[in-house]
């Protein structure tokens, strides 16, 4: 499966957010989207997922406009996890994860034994099986994030699109989660697209990187090729240097 963005422009009211965006993603690839606040990263993910309509251009999934694909069929192709919002609804964690099976069960369907087995499998894989009988709105922000990601896995779509998935995770869980994304891409051939504010996570995950700046794509390509000191310093308006630690790379501010 491929996702292609062609000549895409998007505006809110009269404010131009994205201009002349052209990108292509495929199964088994992992792409991080990096850029400062308010640059359009979240909007780009919504456009890819068919949740927003471009002013100009189109998003194609295997050659078909994403806006013309039925929701049930689209759910089998793309799982989208937006930024975490607080919830006041009292759903058990297992029920939230089972919502990821909606495309298979139907919106008013009852979970079958197979659906519950799949949900439990992914809860265990994400190391949160112990939360299955707890209420979702009683969990910490980090735990809620992991539950939503588990629901996306339960959807078993070809692509997983995540908006700042590590924003509520502590350092250790954030690291392990990035490793999980790498595994989903390399071992299971899932297409992964995610936004982040952390250049270190981009370096950790490798793959491809898209850097947004001033409505446009500043640069895109292989992470090791495009994520350099000059680009990082430019987009964040502060002197930044990549440091090679031998087993990994990190970014530091240079005063």
UniProtKB/TrEMBL annotation:
Keywords, sorted A to Z: ATP-binding, Nucleotide-binding, Transport
Limits of the ABC transporter domain: 3-239
Taxonomic superkingdom: Bacteria
Keyword Nucleotide-binding tagged: yes
SMART domains for the chain: AAA
Entry similarity comment: Belongs to the ABC transporter superfamily.
Protein name: Iron complex transport system ATP-binding protein
The species this protein was found in: Peptoniphilus asaccharolyticus DSM 20463
């Amino acid at each position: 499966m491929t996702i292609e963005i062609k000549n895409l422009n998007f505006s809110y009211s009269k404010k131009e957010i994205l201009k002349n965006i052209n990108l292509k993603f495929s199964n088994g690839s992992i792409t991080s989207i990096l850029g400062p606040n308010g640059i359009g990263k979240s909007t780009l993910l919504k456009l890819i997922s068919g949740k927003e309509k471009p002013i100009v251009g189109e998003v194609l999934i295997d050659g078909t406009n994403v806006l013309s694909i039925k929701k049930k069929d689209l759910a089998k192709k793309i799982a989208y996890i937006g930024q975490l919002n607080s919830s006041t609804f009292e759903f058990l964690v297992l029920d939230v994860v089972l919502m990821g099976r909606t495309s298979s069960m139907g919106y008013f369907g009852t979970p079958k034994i197979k659906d519950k087995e799949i949900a439990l499998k992914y809860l265990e894989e994400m190391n949160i099986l112990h939360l299955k009988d707890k209420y979702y709105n009683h969990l910490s922000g980090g735990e809620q994030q992991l539950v939503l990601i588990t629901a996306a896995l339960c959807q078993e779509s070809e692509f997983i699109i995540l908006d700042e998935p590590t924003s509520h995770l502590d350092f250790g869980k954030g690291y392990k989660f990035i490793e999980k994304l790498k595994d989903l891409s390399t071992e299971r051939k899932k297409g992964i697209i995610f936004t982040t504010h952390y250049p270190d996570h981009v370096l950790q995950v490798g793959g491809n990187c898209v850097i947004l700046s001033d409505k446009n794509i500043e640069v895109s390509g292989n992470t090791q090729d495009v994520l350099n000191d000059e680009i990082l310093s430019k987009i964040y308006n502060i002197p930044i240097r990549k440091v090679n630690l031998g087993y990994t790379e990190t970014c530091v501010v240079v005063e």
